[in-house]
Design brief:
By secondary structure, the chain is mainly alpha-helical. About 70% of the residues lie in helices and about 5% in strands.
């Protein structure tokens, strides 16, 4: 925010100096005022367009950084009891603002991403470990095996016990990887989808 403020001060100062020189030049030379006015307005519009484009790019970069911080926080706390309020306090923005930005970039809400990631980790534990289902349910953030089984079946179509007996682990929600690049398009993966976004 401070850097943007300084940028605006510099731009406004540049415009005021240019305006002053323009008026002084017209007064001294008594030239065609209307031609110079048209040229000045055209130049000003070009400058404003450039500033607007740079501000838009800075905003996108800031929003990507926010989304990355949310993802990092969720990934570090998958087995802890966290809520959207906890995430918002850690990142420093309201949960509504965070959720709007997160959904815009990932096409999934923060709550759904957290839930799907936990259930994906739970599916891996069911197949690759011998932990009791009740323990996995608790580690996934559910108070009861029943609520865990209901949520798991919604995502994986099978109850946890049946899924364990099948013995094939398929991740339904991989970690979202935000990428930063100077190329025109940037790809990141959400689950089994690959989406292109402007860098």
């Amino acid at each position: 925010p401070f850097q943007k403020f300084v940028l605006w001060i510099v731009v406004v100062g540049f415009v005021l100096v240019a305006l002053f020189r323009f008026l002084l030049d017209c007064y001294r030379k008594k030239c065609m005022v209307f031609v110079k006015i048209a040229f000045f307005i055209k130049t000003l519009l070009v400058i404003l367009a450039i500033i607007n484009e740079k501000a838009r790019r800075y905003t996108m970069k800031d929003q990507k950084e926010i989304v990355k911080k949310v993802i990092d926080y969720i990934e570090k706390n998958l087995e802890k009891e966290i809520s959207l309020e906890d995430i918002s306090k850690n990142i420093g923005y309201s949960k509504f603002h965070l959720n709007r930005i997160f959904t815009a970039y990932t096409e999934i809400t923060m709550y759904k991403y957290l839930q799907n990631r936990r259930l994906t980790v739970a599916a891996e534990k069911l197949v690759r470990t011998d932990k009791p289902i009740t323990q996995i349910a608790h580690e996934t953030g559910y108070d009861s095996q029943q609520s865990f089984s209901f949520a798991f079946k919604q995502l994986y179509l099978y109850p946890p016990k049946v899924y364990r007996n099948i013995g094939i682990y398929i991740p339904k929600q991989n970690r979202i990887s935000m990428c930063y690049s100077y190329v025109s398009n940037c790809k990141f993966m959400t689950g089994n989808r690959i989406k292109e976004i402007a860098a």
